[in-house]
């Protein structure tokens, strides 16, 4: 990068080391390894896989840091194998999907009274463990490794497995609508584009492929996107027409490449990062065009700003440095941030030794008022269309919402509620009892009625 002075609203973005009382500790992480991020978050909860039988999942509240205690704190536990990946529904903060070694994908709904730790940070048991999923998606023949929800269509889920397939699921109908099985190799990453029309995949064969999300056919490919053997991670850069891949060079230097989606024969820009050994995780905030580059085994988080012209990436100060290495990391959705304190991003950092640390990035401002220049409209908790409409050809940007608290009144989206089999059975039993009671009242009053339903 050059040394020219460039103005940026995020030039002085900073992140302080969180205090111990702001973190989550006391849990024993699952020992399974792979290309997943190990932790995911909605604007209300976060989830990570724990060690133990039945694939236990710790689901913590973002507003309840403290000490988790296995056997006391509530967990989600319903798989018969270890959980490999987790993905929250972007339109329902309480719903998430889990992928497991038992070849299934389970959809879960967190109850409103969920509280593994209390307001004082102590482990508590506010209710029983969650063991019944809303539904199971069955179709993969081997362990399911990665999950990604569609950015604009409701209840549309992307998955990949060790059976070398990539599938798109209509969760409401509990059926697979698209399947791609032409590549006989493990997938390292699967991502949707900005609208959810296309899918990008990376494999151990070093080829990046672009698929039509509705048909599963290959529309383009980049042969040997990175020459190194490290895992290749992918990211569409919003609606800019540009695409980012993160991997390693022939001499094992970690690098970022920017590609033009209309001409993928050669990269527009290559940025060498360092020579560390861990795979990198790119977390891109499309609203502010800021990239948070994390690495497994690293203590540093590098911050870049993307601009849709050469040299494309501009480094913003030194980011965040720590002596505690990262096992996994994820971004909290914008609607879960403290915007009035000028918190522009929050990363949930999972570590082996120091629990889960919330890394809040702030832009220093003198005013306490809402800063609309650093908080543009962000993705809302409402889908732009349904899975059926998307499959029929509908193509829409994700629905957005203002982050200014003064403009958010009455904008809560009405969400579709899914129920488990036991919940529906109980409601049916209650309805039958109510019918019997009412029929008894009618008989007692000698009122004729037709009971043949």
How is this structure best described in words?
Helices cover 6% and strands 34% of the residues. The strands form nine sheets. It has a four-stranded antiparallel β-sheet with strand order 1-29-28-27, with no helix packed on it. A four-stranded antiparallel β-sheet has the order 7-8-9-10, with no helix packed on it. Strands 11-12-13-14 form a four-stranded antiparallel β-sheet. It has helices at residues 387-391, 421-444; strands at residues 14-15, 24-25, 39-41, 45-49, 57-61, 66-67, 83-88, 95-100, 104-109, 135-138, 144-149, 156-161, 166-170, 175-180, 187-192, 198-203, 208-212, 218-222, 233-236, 242-248, 254-260, 269-274, 280-285, 290-295, 302-306, 313-315, 328-331, 343-350, 356-362, 378-379, 400-401. With 453 residues, it is mainly beta. The protein starts with 13 loop residues before the first strand and ends in a 9-residue tail after the last helix.
The DSSP helix count reads 2
Shape: globular
The radius of gyration computed from the alpha-carbon positions, rounded to a whole number of angstroms, is 23 Å
Report strand order across the widest sheet: 1-29-28-27
Q: How large a portion of the residues is in β-strands, by DSSP E? A: 25-35%
Mean pLDDT: 89
- Total strands: 31
Cα(first) to Cα(last) distance is 76 Å
Report the biggest beta sheet as strand number plus sense, adding barrel if it closes. Answer: 4 strands, antiparallel
Structural class: mainly beta
């Amino acid at each position: 990068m050059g040394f020219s002075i460039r103005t940026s609203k995020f030039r002085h973005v900073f992140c302080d080391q969180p205090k111990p009382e702001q973190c989550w500790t006391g849990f024993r992480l699952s020992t399974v390894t792979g290309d997943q991020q190990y932790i995911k978050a909605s604007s209300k909860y976060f989830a990570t896989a724990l060690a133990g039988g039945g694939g236990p999942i710790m689901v913590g509240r973002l507003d309840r840091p403290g000490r988790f205690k296995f056997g006391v704190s509530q967990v989600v536990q319903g798989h018969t194998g270890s959980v490999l990946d987790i993905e929250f529904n972007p339109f329902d903060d309480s719903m998430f999907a889990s992928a497991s070694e038992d070849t299934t994908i389970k959809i879960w709904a967190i109850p409103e009274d969920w509280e593994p730790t209390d307001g004082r940070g102590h482990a508590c048991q506010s209710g029983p463990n969650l063991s019944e999923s809303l539904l199971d998606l069955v179709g993969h023949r081997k362990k399911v490794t990665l999950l990604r929800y569609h950015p604009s269509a409701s209840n549309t889920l992307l998955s990949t497995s060790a059976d070398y397939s990539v599938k798109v699921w209509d969760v409401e109908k509990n059926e697979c609508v698209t399947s791609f099985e032409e590549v006989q190799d493990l997938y390292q990453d699967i991502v949707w584009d900005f609208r959810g029309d296309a899918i990008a995949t990376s494999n151990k064969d070093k080829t990046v492929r672009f698929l039509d999300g509705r048909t599963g056919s290959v529309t383009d490919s980049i042969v040997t996107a990175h020459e190194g053997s490290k895992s290749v991670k992918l990211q569409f850069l919003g609606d800019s027409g540009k695409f980012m891949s993160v991997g390693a060079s022939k001499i094992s230097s970690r690098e970022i490449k920017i590609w033009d989606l209309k001409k993928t024969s050669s990269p527009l820009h290559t940025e060498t990062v360092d020579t560390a050994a861990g795979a990198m995780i790119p977390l891109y905030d499309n609203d502010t065009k800021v990239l948070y580059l994390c690495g497994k085994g690293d203590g540093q988080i590098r911050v870049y700003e993307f601009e849709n012209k050469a040299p494309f990436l501009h480094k913003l100060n030194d980011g965040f440095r720590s002596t505690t290495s990262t096992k996994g990391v994820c971004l909290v959705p914008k609607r879960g941030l403290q915007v009035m304190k000028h918190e522009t991003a929050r990363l949930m950092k999972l570590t082996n030794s120091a629990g889960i640390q919330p890394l809040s990035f702030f832009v220093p401002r003198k005013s306490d008022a809402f800063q609309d220049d650093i908080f543009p409209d962000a993705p809302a908790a409402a889908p732009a269309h349904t899975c059926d409409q998307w499959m029929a050809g509908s193509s829409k940007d994700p629905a957005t919402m203002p982050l200014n608290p003064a403009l958010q009144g009455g904008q809560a989206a009405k969400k579709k509620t899914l129920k488990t089999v036991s919940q529906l059975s109980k409601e049916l039993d209650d309805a039958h009892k109510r019918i019997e009671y009412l029929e008894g009242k009618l008989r007692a009053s000698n009122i004729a009625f037709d009971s043949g339903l």
